[in-house]
Amino acid sequence: MRRIFRVLVPAFLVALLAAGVSAQTGGSLAYGSAQVGTISTASPLVIYSFPASAGDLIAVDVIALTPGFDPSVSLLSPSQEPIAASDSNSLTPGAVDARIARRLNTNGTYALLVGGANGTIGDFLIKLNGLQAGEPPALPPGSAAVADFTASPLPQFIAIPVDPSAPGTLTLAASPATFAFSAQLYGPDGSLIALLDGVPQASVNLPAAAGAAVIALQPASLDSTGMVQISTGGALPDNVTAPAATQEPGAAAVAPANVCTASSGGTVNLRSGPGTNYGIVGSLNPGMFLPVQGISPDRGWYAVNTNGAQAWSSATVVTLNGPCGNLSTIQPPAAPPTAAPGQATATPFASATAIGLVTVTPLPDSEPPTQAITPTPPPVAPPDNDYQVELDRNNGGSFSQQISYPAGDRSDRISVSVSNFDSANSFAQFAVTLACTGTGTEYVRWGENQAQNLACGQSLTLTLNNESNQRFLNVTLPDGSGPALVNYTLVFIKVG
């Protein structure tokens, strides 16, 4: 079966230069800078550059200053491969502004190409904003963490590994519930996949892809304080709670000399019994000293007194102070009932489909359970069939897929045609470039029909008309290639 892709994207990439079009050099931009430029008939393209590091989060805004002008912008990597293109702004639907938001994956100098969509000309303002996120700490699968904004509103970042075989869910919840935060979620390829602004809680879909997504969090208002709990899956895991804002009633501010007490250098959970299957009844915060009543039969949990009531804390996350050498063994309360198979409870969260930043402090509760580690087979491209790409005669487009070697789908055959020829417009010519990312990109070969002698980053020209409105491209990893998993994009630029 043949899959049909109709691709409609703005055509304003570097093929204009190859066609002999005069371009202006707009100069270098820095994060936080802005410049005014002009698109004219004589010079329909302005090129800017900026230095960046892997992990940087950028936002490029091109704002029309001339009525009727519809600006467009594209982003090129340090190797001059197209990364993203836009002639619209997802934050202001219907506006003629253009915006690109992206997480960059490579060190080097990037290029921005500004033009006019649909042949429009005029003045514009270009603004570049960026944050240096570097390599953020990773959130282990199935775990949770807390981003703490009680001391500083500075952005915080965290990496979230995603499953290449299945989509997932990222859950965010503020503490206190009145604390509003903003968040941007970037996919493993650097594209912006979710935007939240001024929300106290949300559930965001994670794509099925290889690598890690990155989320940037910050308070919605710089004068507000609070925390954001982060977890993968559905509701927040049972072993994570936000640090309490005030001292637990009944806790001492200093360690009594004649009483055995428990303390902790970080916020840890207090439970109704000695195990993570018991409910959370409070927290032990830094600077607190709770009297110890005894120890569990397995010697793994301490019973403490909090405001006249008994609670339990894992022995792995607290420090004992004072005369604690002869603790009594205390029998635990009855364990809570276990949910029947197939039953689960979860806290509903607001849904978010469309983008601010995390030194992450996971809250300890007990030693993690020992898990058998099963080796994960290397990812491969899934099997597929031939593809049919239908281009817009006036705009061109792009097509993306994946190939791998030695296992998986190693070759794709793509039929290319134009969907909107008519009697007055029956000819189109496109410059086609193959952009590749992943492992083993040096082995990829591609071309028209059986002439597969081009490599990633190289180009060819396709001519289509009413009489001959179908051409075939092949992208392959030939026999003898090394191990490879390559994501590729064919970019079609209208040149005639």
Tell me what you see in this structure:
With 496 residues, the chain is mainly β. Helices cover 1% and strands 46% of the residues. It has one helix spanning 15-18, and strands spanning 3-7, 23-28, 33-39, 45-52, 56-64, 71-76, 82-86, 98-103, 108-116, 122-132, 144-148, 156-161, 168-175, 181-186, 192-199, 201-206, 212-219, 227-232, 261-263, 268-271, 280-284, 290-295, 301-306, 309-314, 319-321, 351-352, 360-361, 387-391, 397-405, 411-418, 427-439, 445-448, 451-454, 459-465, 471-476, 484-494. Strands 1-28-30-35-32-33 form a six-stranded mixed β-sheet, with no helix packed on it. It has a six-stranded mixed β-sheet with strand order 26-16-13-18-11-27, with no helix packed on it. Mean pLDDT is 76; it is low at 5-21, 234-253, 339-364 and 366-373.
Measured distance between first and last alpha carbons: 32 Å
Helix content: under 10%
How many strands appear in the DSSP assignment? Answer: 36
Structural class: mainly beta
Question: Whole-number average pLDDT?
Answer: 76
Q: How many domains make up the coordinates?
A: 4
SSE topology:
Blueprint: E1 3-7, H1 15-18, E2 23-28, E3 33-39, E4 45-52, E5 56-64, E6 71-76, E7 82-86, E8 98-103, E9 108-116, E10 122-132, E11 144-148, E12 156-161, E13 168-175, E14 181-186, E15 192-199, E16 201-206, E17 212-219, E18 227-232, E19 261-263, E20 268-271, E21 280-284, E22 290-295, E23 301-306, E24 309-314, E25 319-321, E26 351-352, E27 360-361, E28 387-391, E29 397-405, E30 411-418, E31 427-439, E32 445-448, E33 451-454, E34 459-465, E35 471-476, E36 484-494
Parallel strand pairs: 1-28, 2-4, 16-26, 28-30
Antiparallel strand pairs: 3-10, 4-9, 5-8, 5-10, 6-7, 6-9, 11-18, 11-27, 12-17, 13-16, 13-18, 14-15, 14-17, 19-22, 19-25, 20-21, 22-23, 23-24, 29-36, 30-35, 31-34, 31-36, 32-33, 32-35
